[in-house]
Amino acid sequence: MSEPSVRDFYDDLAHDYHLMFRDWDASIAYQAEVLGGLVRQSLGVGPHTVLDCSCGIGTQAIGLARAGHHVVGSDLSPVATARAATEAAARGSRLPAAAADMRQLPFRKAAFDVVLCADNSITHLLSRRDIRAALLGMRRVLRDGGLLVITVRAYDETRRTGPTATPPQVSETRDGRVITFQLWHWHDDGERYDLEHVQLIHAENTWQVRVRRATHWALTGRQLTEFVAEAGFTDIVWHSPATSGYYQPVLTARRAPSAQ
């Protein structure tokens, strides 16, 4: 992963990230309900200590905090984490948040009941070595039996079909009409792609065009399952959108107890 490239992508997007949602607050509530339900199924009612290690501007973390969990946010983007903390406070919640690379999490061992890595964030890691480093770090900060939650795009079909763009998404926001889509430029290996994230924002009878670029590794479910198992997690389960109600496939796994 090229840290400046990914960090710059999310530093720049942090100001406009909410514009991808028709109603960002509704999405915050919906995502917390679904993800919180998966946590409850595995660990009980709680409240639980949660690390959202790719918190962005707080789309998942704020809702989980409002549901009563003790949430800490971290993200590669300092601009995004600052906004996450501010947005949480504006909604009556506390969200400690810090800029941190998920491969080098600055938290003590066994500090959390849950580690969340949502919104396809882990696929910014472009090598087996980087993904292993991130997953081992997530395992380190989880208590024995703690829960790992990862959400990613449904890449199995994508790898077969090789799409070059996503359908435009039109949102009517308080800021006006916003059209969001992505252009994908596949690498020769057929697994990684350069992404152009395009936003068209209507304002004052004209359109503003904003383009941000980053790279992803289109990990299949089998690949990510193998990486998670190799990092020492057990009870690995995939939850499809049809069964979970979440907009992306969700992987859950447990931290295997340490050897005595």
From TrEMBL:
Asked if Plastid is a keyword of the record, the answer is no
Domain Methyltransferase residues, every copy: 50-146
Q: Which InterPro entries match?
A: Methyltransf_25 (IPR041698), SAM-dependent_MTases_sf (IPR029063)
Species for this entry: Actinacidiphila acidipaludis
GO BP: methylation
Q: What is this protein called?
A: Class I SAM-dependent methyltransferase
Gene Ontology MF: a single term = methyltransferase activity
Q: Which UniProt keywords apply?
A: Methyltransferase, Transferase
**Record keyword Transferase present:** yes
